[in-house]
Fold:
Amino acid sequence: MVWGCRAEFLSAIATRTRHARQTTIRVTSSHAKAKSAAKTLAAVAVFLRGLVENAEQLTSLRKCRAVLSRAFQAFLKGRSLRAPPRLAPI
Structure:
């Protein structure tokens, strides 16, 4: 993820379209650095598509762990979150 995209996202306009049980979000920006924000949003979209494709195979805990691992990727230095030892399933 790109950390310096806050201004680009604040100046963007998003529209949501629902059709045939699918929701599409279109983001439009006239900011000078809109391309970097578009790359960040594309990376988020790829992650969410992968999560949806595997959602049936994952437990709620694993879905939550995947989202949090991605959200804190910079702090975790690329590692995945692990359950604390006392909470790990046997």
